[in-house]
Amino acid sequence: MRKIRVAVIGAGPAGIYAADILTKEYQGVQVDVYDRLPAPYGLVRYGVAPDHPRIKEIIKALRRVLSGEGIRFIGNVHYGTDLTLPELRAHYDAVIFSTGARADRPLKIPGIDLAGSYGAADFVSWYDGHPDVPRTWPLTAKNVAVLGAGNVALDIARMLAKPADEQLSTEIPGNVYQGLAANLATDIHVFARRGPAQIKFSPMEFRELSHSPSVDVLVHPEGFEIDEASQRAINTSKSTKLVVDTMMKYLQREPTGAPHRIHLHLCQSPVAVLGTERVEGLRTERMELTGDGTVRGTGEFTDWPVEAVYRAVGYLSTHLAGLPFDHDAGVIPHDAGRVLDIDGGLIEATYVTGWIKRGPVGLIGHTKSDAAETVKSLLGDLAGLRVPEVSDPDAILERLSAKGVDYTTWEEWERLDAHEVSLGREQGRERVKVVPRQDMIHAGRDGILVRD
After folding, report:
1. Does the residue 424 lie in any domain?
2. Cα–Cα distance, 354 to 9 (Å, whole number)
3. How much of the chain, in percent, has pLDDT values that exceed 90?
4. Contact 434/419 with Cβ under 8 angstroms?
5. pLDDT tens digit string along 323-364?
6. Are 275 and 156 in the same domain?
7. Domain containing 161: what range?
8. Boundary residue ending a domain (288, 315, 342)
9. 168 contacts 429 by C-beta, under 8 angstroms
10. What's the pTM?
11. Is residue 411 part of a domain?
């Protein structure tokens, strides 16, 4: 069995699952998993709301993979600048890209670029302590609009509505707590284009929306429509039925007089953000169900007096240097994970998995099967792959050092991980994240305590 070396670019679930499957199905493989951050786990660490620790249980499984034989984590390395595709090809038999989706999908309506209009990805990165975003966030709006009908919209609404002190049991860093403590929001309005059976909330997250004693969840009856297609969806999907049942309970529940309110508006499509220099309102069009699961506009418009707008209409992958990219779909063109050039021809020894491959859809189960397909393609191509020019596995690290790249290792991540846990222990919490990139590196390398 020929020994091979594979580089995986992106240490989120997609890249880690690809590495795991590779090492299980091919004994002679060494996998180097790179990430642009000093820490692994991607959106599990930097895209899941901090008050959802159960979802982060997946980190335990990902950790077992990255700490296993045949896999090496190399962090704080930027693909495209610190390492290029020609360099990777010179050191590896194959390269798998699993860089995910970090940007916000654009919403092309008038006024969307006004001050006070934000993308969900940026706000999520802020409250999750991402090192590459500003450490402050303007939370001066009392009335806020959240555009979208998925779990990210729920997370944003909940983070804006819950008092900061209720977040102190989570891993939020000090700067996020201070920002949330100054938050003036009292009413969060979530707008969904379609009806109750088309909402993409997870049942558990939707139920948990009202668990804070400081928050009332108000479902507005306008737009609460169930047509034939909706009823079929309810009858055939347990998840849809649970979401609609929860929505009915919210609809019938009397407000408690809590100081914060999350409003859910159905069949309302945003058509313009209002204002001259900054957000002063949101205009929506009333939609109606067409019977097939889609909606159409009624020509009836409503102006909502809000001072901030958050768009949570989906994530978008970004173009990677040296690779083709479908800018409309936001993915790298591929055939079963094999990257294709602009003419549809195969690009040798280059593969893709995760959201950069299929778009930002699907749960962890989809990510595993997606990675399995890509690995199957790679192993099927093995006989035709050229042997890399450089055989020494440490040569790539020497090259990074020669360039002045301050890369991090798995051992350094484990020290940083232990350091964050120790910071949390001091405050009676499970963990407190270290935010600045250099502080992350120093804590992992020197064991220096950094208190935010």
Report:
1. no
2. 11
3. 90
4. yes
5. 999 998 999 999 999 999 999 999 999 999 999 999 988 667
6. yes
7. 105-315
8. 315
9. yes
10. 0.94
11. no
Q: Are residues 87 and 120 in the same domain?
A: no
Neighbours of 140 (CB within 10 A): 11
Question: Rounded distance, CA 298 to CA 227, Å?
Answer: 16
Domain identity same for 47 and 114: no
Same domain, 397 and 256: no
Regarding whether 29 and 68 lie in a shared domain, the answer is yes
Rounded CA separation 70/62 (Å) = 15
C-alpha 160/C-alpha 163 separation (Å) is 8
- What is the distance of C-alpha 304 from the center of its chain? 29
Per DSSP, the three-state class of 274 is strand
CB–CB of 103/317 below 8 Å?
yes
In this structure, are 303 and 326 located in the same domain? no
Whether residue 118 is found in the same domain as residue 53: no
How many other CB atoms are there within 10 angstroms of residue 305's CB atom?
A: 13
* Nearest of 448, 437, 452, 441 to residue 411 by alpha carbon: 441
- Same domain membership, residue 228 and residue 84: no
- Contact of 223 with 268, CB cutoff 8 Å: yes
Kindly give the pairing relationship between strand 215-219 and strand 260-265: parallel
- 339/344 Cα distance (integer angstroms): 9
- Taking alpha carbons only, the member of 29, 2, 23 closest to residue 66 is 23
CA gap 351, 372 in Å, rounded: 12
Q: 31 CB contacts (<8 Å, ≥6 apart)?
A: 5, 6, 7, 8, 19, 22, 23, 70, 71, 72
**From CA 345, how far away is CA 254, in angstroms rounded?**
60
